[in-house]
Amino acid sequence: MRHDLPGLTALKTLAGALVISVLFGCFSSVSAASPELGVWINHTGRGAVEIRPCAEQGPASRNLCGYIVWLKDPANKRGDPLTDGYNPDPTKRNRSICGLPVLGSLQRVSDGGWDNGWVYDPEQGASFDAAIKLANRDRLVLTGYKGIKLFSKSFTWKRAPDDLPRCDGVQQDARKKASAKTQEAKALPALKVPRPVPAVRPKPIEQSKALD
Q1: Which long-range contacts link 167-170 to residues 24+ away (Cβ below 8 Å)?
Q2: Among 3, 22, 99, 108, which is least packed by CB within 10 angstroms?
Q3: Closest listed residue to residue 166, CA positions, set 37, 68, 82, 76
């Protein structure tokens, strides 16, 4: 019976552990450099979705989710903020469209894209299976389907500009804080620099007085 040398066995064990460690590290969380992350204007041009990890840590941090962060028309004809009025669940129909989760549970797949997730269309109040994949750095293809992709439908989203105003208050809060700091700085009384005091040299003592 053949036996591997102890040193060779240890080397194989170490190599296997390193491979497992690397693989686990690759899939343990979404890299901050993943090109799918960011804000994307959807195919209608009326909304934008921010794609980000579903959680900061834990199993959900390995998946991608998407939330509406910009609306071309954030209010209805009466001037009221848009809500999830077509949702089949009556308890959710008062949810604001701004900040609404519309993508979820997307998992990295072997072809480099993300699949096995879901997409929610608030204009229909319907959910579908979903997959996303980059066409290029600034184009993302969303595919919606039901169970199998035989009757799927795909849409192309484009990357939003960095200065796109958000409806979820993230940029607004940052601007308010910056403005508050500016106003606070303006409110502080200006410091007055004291005028320099000229040096006074002592008068020379007369010799006659010095002798007294």
Answers
A1: 167/68, 167/69, 167/70, 167/71, 167/74, 167/98, 167/99, 168/67, 168/68, 168/69, 168/98, 168/99, 170/69
A2: 3
A3: 68
Q: In whole numbers, what is the pLDDT of the chain averaged over residues?
A: 79
Q: How many Cβ atoms sit within 10 Å of the Cβ of residue 115? A: 19
From residue 50, alpha-carbon distances to 7, 39, 185, 196 in Å are 51, 4, 34, 58
Please state, in angstroms and as integers, the Cα–Cα distance from residue 44 to each residue in 72, 155, 158, 205, following that order. 10, 9, 11, 95
What residue segments make up the domains of the chain, in order of their start?
A: 28-159
Q: Are 62 and 107 in contact (CB under 8 A)?
A: yes
Over the stretch 102-126, which tens digit does the pLDDT of each residue have? 999 999 999 999 999 999 999 999 9
Dig out the tokens for 179 from the structure: 């403005």
Q: What is the mean pLDDT of residues 136-147?
A: 96
| The CATH fold of domain 28-159 | Lipocalin (2.40.128)
The SS3 call for residue 158 is strand
What pTM was estimated for this model as a whole?
A: 0.68
Rg (CA), the chain: 32
Q: Which two tokens stand for residue 36?
A: 């799918």
Question: Exposure pattern of 30-42 as b/e (b: 16+ CB <10 Å)?
Answer: beeebebebbbbb
Q: How far is residue 141's CA from residue 131's CA, in Å, rounded to a whole number? A: 8
